[in-house]
Amino acid sequence: MNVLKGILRSTPLIRNAIINNAAALRPLATSTISPIVKPVDNVPSSTVEYDKLFKRVELEMKGVDPAVLLSYSWFCIAAASHLGIEVTKSWALRKAEKERHTLLKCVHIYKKHKVQYEIRTYFRFVHLQRLTESTCDTYLEYIERNLPEGCALKVTKVEVQKMPEHLTPPTNNE
């Protein structure tokens, strides 16, 4: 009813257009909408592709600011929990990796006057277990889109595969 009062208070041009076209307006339908289902032909089982299974997915995050890296790892863990992905480990290296560069203040002389620059790189790791390929792709796309500046992400996947036919399980011949 408040919407109708707001419309009636609007400019005369809009009010007249709404009142004149009131016959064209109709109430919202209350029936439920059923989805259109297309019949699926009998697809031979040889053409069906199954999702890959990953035993473990390892995320290695690298950055220059430890607070941003910690926040991003929390974000990754929270996103995994919302998708029902099991997080087994999450840790950081104790010390940062340091890269030092020494430069002379003056190019030609005064070897005593040097300046030393240091770049520290911090690491965090997250291990995820038992993922399907579709879940993994969705999760990785989401966290890659939200990767903060100054951070890098490296993903390593360990896939579960069928045992080759030329290998047989050991027998109990003792």
Automatic annotation (TrEMBL):
Keywords: Mitochondrion, Ribonucleoprotein, Ribosomal protein. One of its GO terms (cellular component) is mitochondrial small ribosomal subunit. The keyword Ribonucleoprotein applies. It comes from the Eukaryota. The keyword Protein biosynthesis does not apply. It is found in: Mitochondrion. Its main location: mitochondrion. SMART domains: Ribosomal_S10 (SM01403). It holds the Pfam family Ribosomal_S10. Belongs to the universal ribosomal protein uS10 family. This is Small ribosomal subunit protein uS10m.
